[in-house]
Amino acid sequence: KNGVVIVGAGHAGVQAAASLREDGYDGPVILISDEDELPYHKPPLSKTFIKDQEAKPQPLRGEAFYTGSAIDYRPGVCIDRIDAGGRRLELSDGATLPFDRLILATGSRPRIPSLPGSDFSGVVSLRSLADARLIRELSAQSEDVVILGGGFIGLEIAATLTAAGRKVTVVEAVDRLLGRAVAPIIASHVRQRLEATGVRILSGITIARLEGGNGHVSAAITASGERLPAQMVIIGIGVVPNVELAQAAGITVANGIRVDQQMRTSVPEILAIGDAASYRHWLTGGDVRLESVQNATDQARLAARTILGHADAFTAVPWFWSDIGDIKLQMVGLISGGDSHVVLGDVNENRFSIYHYAGNRLLGIESVNRPGDHMLGRKMLGAGFSPTPQTVATGPDGLKAALA
Ligand code: FAD
């Protein structure tokens, strides 16, 4: 038995290994990572790790988990090629590795624009622990930081580095923050609160080039010629899925490695999960590629079940969180296509939830510092229960009563 090989030891890959064992898989499980670390939590990197010189990474599982569960974890190895027909992998160290089943959990990587000056030192992006260590080091030597991109990562970093005493400017190409990921009320709320802490936010503005001296970045220059001093420039304009391995092996790729409801790619022995995988979403009927810990770990659990011969379809309710300074944002469901909403709580008090509807159907909830609404929303959507807007307006107690 060659067993299951998992490529990538991020949130998806590690959960897949754990779930295989929890569900009783007794063949070999080999977990390969091109990083040289014990697998770690990514969300704290942008929220806390980079502002505290003493902070330690948070491992996803302790070292004993891997040995104790007979998971053959191999750090510092890159998979260079998949021989799909021969069911073998070629490793960067020259070895080949046969598999019965393969799980691609290769994640995504920051999108890097072609920007004159982007090869200066001090121009960075944040995906890995190594990136976070570099940002922390550069931060200690920087007074001014420019962040390209007003998405979750960019804004989390902006809040974190501002709290660490840096002067931060965020430059966003379109005229609002957080793209279409959140409702406009949330986007403007986040903007107001960040600005109140001293973050400068330029929206509807692009950076034309970066300037530097002695090989190190010194400023970002906007398209209209404004010079923004910066000893560090952080690029946070989104990610691209790591699909090249799959693509080269002839596996179908469409904005991610295409998978069915059991996480199988176009080659049934090869599965894909997490940031790298795209699929038709059961909630909306649309094609998605979601970038969240929940999506990665729920898909991992399902992939393990598929390998063990179950035929469950993926029906996990999507949820996500982001901490931007004192805004704890939590989202459940998929809100695109909504046509009306109900607000609970008080925007001015930085505590409110927005319930999004398409007609009379609850699509999803965005909560700011109201974790109870979020948890109840996960229960409601998980149970397929759609309260009317009138019931929502009665508040959490009315909702709990209606759900019971
Ligand atoms: P990853 O965690 O990226 O793991 C993929 C791994 O595969 C990487 O280690 C990669 O190096 C490795 N790999 C790729 N190709 C190869 C190869 N050929 N050979 C060997 N190894 C390979 N999500 C939330 O829900 N909430 C948050 O608050 C949140 N905050 C975040 C903050 C930061 C700074 C970042 C970067 C992400 C955050 N996310 C958050 C997103 C979340 O971390 C991702 O959705 C999640 O990590 C996806 O898991 P994954 O296993 O698919 O990919």
Automatic annotation (TrEMBL):
InterPro entries: FAD-oxidoreductase/Apoptosis (IPR050446), FAD/NAD-bd_sf (IPR036188), FAD/NAD-binding_dom (IPR023753), FAD/NAD-linked_Rdtase_dimer_sf (IPR016156), Reductase_C (IPR028202). Residues 319-401 form the Reductase C-terminal domain. One of its GO terms (cellular component) is cytoplasm. It comes from the Bacteria. Keywords: FAD, Flavoprotein, Oxidoreductase. Pfam families: Pyr_redox_2, Reductase_C. Residues 4-300 form the FAD/NAD(P)-binding domain. It is an enzyme of class 1 (oxidoreductase). GO terms for molecular function: oxidoreductase activity, acting on NAD(P)H. This is Rhodocoxin reductase. It comes from Mesorhizobium prunaredense.
